[in-house]
Amino acid sequence: MTKPEILITTKKSILKGLDQAHSTYRIIALTRNQERVIYDYINSSDEIELEYQPTVLSVKKFFFPQDEIILDYTVEGKVTPRIEAENLVLFGVRPCDLNGIKILDEAFAESHGDPNYLSRREKSIVIGIDCQKVCDKDAFCYKVDSNEAKGGFDIMLYDLEDRYVIQVASAKGQKFLERYFETTPGLPSDLEKALAKKKEGFKGLEPFKNLEKFPEIFEKNKDHPVWEEEGSRCLSCGSCIMVCPTCYCFDVADELALNLKKGQRMRRWDACMLSAFAEVAGGENFRPTAKERLHHRIDRKFNFLMAKHGQAVCVGCGRCVRACLADISPKVIAEKITGK
Amino acid sequence: MSKPKVAFFDFACCEGCQLCAIDLEPEQLLDLVSVVDIVEFREAMSETGDQLDIAFVEGSITRDSDIDRLKKIRERAKLVVALGACSMIAGINALKNFQTKAEYTQAVYPEDPNKYETTTAKAIGEIIQVDAFIPGCPIDTGEFLRVTKNLVLGKTPDIPTYPVCVECKRNENVCVYEKGIQCLGPVIRAGCNARCPSNGGYCFGCRGLIPEPNINSQQDIMQKYGLTYEKMLEKFKLFLQRNQEIFGDDQ
Ligand code: SF4
Ligand code: SF4
Ligand code: SF4
Ligand code: SF4
Q1: pTM, whole model, 2 decimals?
Q2: Are residues A192 and A230 in the same domain?
């Protein structure tokens, strides 16, 4: 791609464009749902919350849902795969979650690829909004170099009061932009202004000093006392994994109908923090204690998967920290092992 | 192949779980009777001595005379399934175990405390071997059908071993602890789709504990979130009286 061209649009134009796109796409945005603020389908841009508030689940659920039927079968052997993908616009996704999407894109594209996930991604337009400050006390995106989006978006918006500076990252993003948003050319100084505001907002919030060396450091600290200290409080409740934007494990089960003639193959989110996750036939469990499971989970974020993806696989969104009643936090564990 | 013979029996309970078991859509009922043969049902039939493939047992054991009857059911049945919380973990019947017999008989039948035979409420698994269970107060009809189907197929029923929090998070609920309410979800077996926290309540444990609950951590959390030790035990009382780690041996 040539040097990205800088465009400006008004917030009004963006909202109007989303309302127009509604006839072709289902629109997802941050919205109020009773007492909660969640990413959900909206019917009108009036329902959008522009100010970010942390959500329990990330936008992962739209590409990789909690439960899905992946095929129908009959006992005679007829198998019909189910891939349900719709035209989606995800509006207002923040850097932590965008980096999460980038990691999931890499994971689900591996070997033969996951058709359900990939077809949903293909039919989606992701519009990011950059953060200009940390959203709450539990988020630590800045510690793991994740307060800027490294990928996962088609269009990125940088806040400039009543306007946005726009960057486009994909051909489908470009097409969408031309069709739905009114833009005017902008100057490099517009983007600089937005980024200066961000710098101000994140002032004093530094990444882990030796972040790039995490895989090595975690590899050397397999017997660190932190695993016992934190693991002994863990309830193996799985909350941390359910809410994580980068966890992608699932369980597959066949559900034969009561008439014993046909059935459905289901997949649903699974979690390495649950006691039965690493249990195999015969009852043997490869990670029988909560301590081992916690160690494994954190190693996936900061050790072996980090080496594979070339970035921390914890994006610091803080969701697991908010969710864990036992106050177990990847940030605290990383600090205890690697220093602040 | 003849269809497996199935029967229902009840002890101390409200019979709500039996109602849930047959609260079926007409189509589901036809499917059910196409795979099993219901030979005894408390409401409709009398207890005969025939051999059974599956005996669903509802209710807690609260009288010495129940023990004999339960053992006879065990002898007749290839598989015994505990149906619902009363049968599986003694349920709310076990609340009386926190009082002396004199106290509760006096409270319930002040005119004639000795009128009825009664003793410590127990789960059926404390007396006979149980092959499978369907948790809940009341049970979930879908889960009943799934377990029955698996047993007919000779499979181990797949009842979740993970806790309610998993389902609660999948439903994207705001955790009730954030609203100052203490919930037993982290140590209670899922499978109800986090029914209570998803509908404005909190989990009080009707499906019983998960296989390896971290009771210490759960107790620390409830106290950290504002309960005194006594108030915390109150929360456990409703459904977990038979758990020795929490309440010790029979008082
Ligand atoms: S591990 Fe926790 S903070 Fe890190 S990405 Fe997952 S939920 Fe967010
Ligand atoms: S770390 Fe916390 S949220 Fe995760 S399983 Fe353990 S207790 Fe639950
Ligand atoms: S409300 Fe209860 S079940 Fe839900 S996450 Fe909180 S503790 Fe777990
Ligand atoms: S949430 Fe708890 S109390 Fe409510 S139905 Fe489920 S297990 Fe029972």
Answers
A1: 0.95
A2: no
